[in-house]
Each structure stands twice: as structure tokens, then as C-alpha cells.
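User: Can you predict the 3D structure for this chain?
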Amino acid sequence: MIAAEQGLSPTPVTHHQASAFASPWTRREQIRMLLWETCWTLLCRWTPKPLNPWRLFWLRRFGCQMTGAPFVHQRAKVQLPWNLILHDRACLGDGAVAYSLGVIEIGARATVAQEAYLCTGTHDFSDINIPLVTAKVTIGEDAFVGARAFLLPGVTIGPGAVIGAASLVSKDMPPWTICVGHPCKPLKPRVISAPSKMSGTNQKRAS
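Assistant: Here is the predicted structure, written as C-alpha cells:
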């Protein structure tokens, strides 16, 4: 399903499945997924970091919505690019996973660091067919998601928030707050000592 079909709210969407063993995706969607995985493996995964425009070209070709010049590391994994929205200078770092069965939106100048996992998919375990349930994950502008953090479906990270490494985020996190833990909780305000440096002129890249 494309982003427009799923909607842009974090409200969960349950996908119809005839049984627990049936795919929620149509044959056409499955073929599109296979083409995307083949494309990224053959044309992008081996590329050096400076070839970011080449990787963005192929993401766009497969339906990723972009503004400005985001950065996607060659070892990042994007499950369904047509469900990904990247704003100017958003960064998807080395080994980061955008498990975009539902919509993922990463705001301007936001960074998703090494091996962080943005998960939009779960299952309805009250149904014997355990159908797929998806919900949008939103990363606000100027936010930072630390290495190996795990974000559950439907969460929103407020603008300027910092999520500590290896945190498990199961609910929305407030803006301009440092949040850590398992589960993740707000710890203290994020204080910017030199606001004039927040110009966004330098590309953030999680290496």
C-alpha cells in the first residue's frame, strides 16, 4: 500500500488476511517489493557514502517522498520506500532499519543513528489469524534517535528530542527533551547552548 492509501495519522491500520499463513500484500505489491530489494542490493548497497544522490534517485524511483537533500547510508535498510517520507537533511544512518510496512516520516535535520530500528508493523493477537497492523512512526525535525534504539508502531518523537542509545520507545516523546531507558522516558530538557549554530547548513550523517 502506498502512503496515501494508508493515511498519514498514527492511527493503527489492520490489514486483511484470510489466515495466519496468508500474505497481507497483493501479488503486485509482492513483485514490487522483490524489485525494490533487488535494486537496492545490486545498485546501492555497495556504493560509497558520497554517492548519496544516486541512492536518493532510486528511492525516488520507488516512490519515496523527499524534500531537499536527505541522506541515506548505503547500509541502511528501507523495507518499502513508497511508505517513507524524508525531509531536507534528514539522515538514515549506517545499519538503520526503516521497517516501513506503514508510513515513516523523518523531519528536517533529524538523525536516525547506527542500527536504530523504526518499526511500523505488529499483529493483532486477539485475532486467530494474527493480521498485520501498521501505524505511522514520526521523527520530528532536529530530533536525534540514538544507536540501536527501537521505536514501536505509532510513536511520535517530538522536534528536537534526543532518544538515548538502545532505548525502547513505546509512546510519544516530548519535544526538546532527552529521553532514555527501557522503556524510554523523558529525562531532562535538551538545552541548546548556541542556538545560532542550529542553521542546518551542515549535513548530519551517522557513520
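The radius of gyration is 17 Å. The first strand starts at residue 13 and ends at 14.
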